[in-house]
Amino acid sequence: MMYVEDLNRKFAFSEGESSLFFTMGKGEIPVVEIKNAQSSAVISLQGAQILSWKPIDGDEVIWLSDDAVYAPGKPVRGGIPVCWPWFGTHEKDPFYPAHGFARNVMWEVLDARSVSDNETEVRFQLRTDELEERYNTIWSQPTVVEYRVSISQRLSMELSTFNKSDQSISISQALHTYFNVNDIDKTAVYGLEGKRYLDKTEAYKLKVQEGPVTIESEVDRIYLDTDDDISIDDRARKIIIKQKGSRSSIVWNPWKDLAKKMEDLEDEGYRKMICVETANVADDVVHIKPNERYFLQVSYNLQKKL
Ligand code: TA6
């Protein structure tokens, strides 16, 4: 693992309105801070977890818990956790890390560059055969994950999984984005109307979404066949989510009681956040043959209210 100084020597820059540098973040975990003419962002090297994305003339888009814990190996509550190579609880061993191990480990920075005054790109990599032994017992097939993040007028992510082993692999995954909302009571998610979903709060009962998704109690749902755009409207702004390589999306808000039980989520935090996650889960699990690569892509942009 490179130190912050080495990373800065290799990648840091400041040119006109664009700058990028590495610094030691909370919990002694390095982060990269990015600015350009369109927006700014902060990404933790642990989990390649995006912690902030703020358009230059707008408010923060990504929610981060005030009570988040920053410690090596611990996922941070908020931001954009990368759930890989499985989503949720491991189907064979519930003691394996929830949502996979990618969000718990340090990623390598492959490249960080200014594309133009308006766009900056950072590329991260995770090679499973270079991880600690305990992860190789959980996941024995050598796999290379690359995560490309582009920061501009929009925030774009591309997560690619390359199967370096000589057998097929099956993964489930998600970009588990926590979005900031003005007021959960005034928030609605569009684009899922009429879609079937598995309701985790009722033992994964299959239901059909009627109208936009609104939150009035705990919501934890896996929507199926979700290849259209999704939007989050909190009456102050609209966030447009475009996704490719995903046919499943999760909508999650813990609501009051669960939020109280979660130590890393402030009691009223659930009123300011909603997770809308671009995923490959349930019947959308991905099978990758040896020497093949799978791409999951998502971008967010804002539509301001007049
Ligand atoms: O994506 C929804 C979900 O799987 C919920 O069931 C909830 O547990 C949430 O993710 C947070 O999971 P975490 O492991 O980060 O506490």
Can you put this structure into words, describing what you see?
- The chain has 306 residues and is mainly beta.
- The strands form 4 sheets. A 9-stranded antiparallel β-sheet has the order 7-8-9-10-24-20-19-14-17, with no helix packed on it. Strands 6, 12, 13, 15, 16, 18, 21 and 22 form an 8-stranded antiparallel β-sheet that branches. It has a 5-stranded antiparallel β-sheet with strand order 1-2-3-4-5.
- The longest helix has 8 residues, at 4-11.
- Helix content is 7%, strand content 44%.
- The N and C termini lie far apart (47 Å).
- A hairpin with a 3-residue loop joins β19 and β20 (237-244).
- The chain has helices at residues 4-11, 133-138, 255-261, and strands spanning 13-15, 18-24, 30-35, 39-44, 49-55, 82-83, 108-116, 119-127, 143-151, 155-163, 169-171, 173-175, 178-180, 188-190, 196-199, 205-208, 213-214, 219-224, 230-233, 237-244, 248-253, 273-280, 286-288, 293-304.
- The site of 6-O-phosphono-beta-D-tagatofuranose (TA6) has 11 residues, from β21 and β22.
- 6-O-phosphono-beta-D-tagatofuranose (TA6) binds at residues 75, 88, 98-99, 176, 200, 220, 250, 252, 275, 277.
